[in-house]
Amino acid sequence: MSSSFSETNRISLIWRHPLYQKHCKKIQELEKDRIFCRHTPEHFLDVARLMYIYSLENKLNLSREIIYATALLHDIGRAQQYLSGISHDIAGAEIAGKILADLHFTEQEKEEILSAISQHRTDGSDNVLAMLLYKADNCLLYTSPSPRDGLLS
User: Fold this and answer.
1) 141: pLDDT confidence band, cut at 50, 70 and 90?
2) pLDDT at residue 152, rounded to an integer
3) Residue 148 has what pLDDT?
4) Which among 82, 70, 64, 85 is positioned nearest to 118, based on CA atoms?
5) pLDDT at 59 over 60
6) What would the pLDDT profile of 65-114 be if each residue is shown by its tens digit?
7) Is the backbone of residue 116 left (phi > 0), alpha (psi -120 to 50) or beta?
8) Which phi and psi (to 5°) does residue 27 adopt?
9) What pTM was estimated for this model as a whole?
């Protein structure tokens, strides 16, 4: 089995994981009337693509798979924030930990991903993966249509 296949497989396993699907559906339900900055699968993939581009531009030696896993999981705690007030980065790291525990990520990979998720609301200056996540997520925040654009009366 080629390494490319196994990488793709692990990302697919995240996507199809029942806990991931449950939380994604709940986020979609809770944000159905939200006009701006929705946390859709498109958002997760946009963040992943930007992170990967930034990684290549800066010649960082980061695995595409780790970047995509981090991006897919970074906002998975949004529903918990809406429902119980727990910060989505903290809730997300907890949920992501459960998902990653079921998959074939090493302890080091899990630690890297969970650390980036829990730090993604700060610049993560001591964590390169968190820094990429912060930059990509905020780039989308400020380039997507938002109420700040004066589009709402």
Assistant:
1) low
2) 32
3) 35
4) 70
5) yes
6) 999 999 999 989 988 877 898 888 898 999 999 999 999 899 999 999 99
7) alpha
8) -60, -45
9) 0.82
Work out the widest C-alpha separation in the chain, in whole angstroms.
56
Distances (CA, A) of 105 to 33, 59, 65, 96, 112: 36, 23, 10, 12, 10
| Residues ≥6 apart with Cβ < 8 Å to 148 | none
Q: 92-101: buried (b, 16+ CB within 10 Å) or exposed (e) per residue?
A: bbebbbebbe
Q: How far apart are CA 144 and CA 2, in angstroms?
A: 37
| CB neighbours of residue 123 within 10 Å | 14
The mean pLDDT value of the chain amounts to 82
What CA–CA distance (Å, rounded) separates 2 from 54?
26
Distance separating alpha carbons of residues 75 and 69, to the nearest angstrom: 12
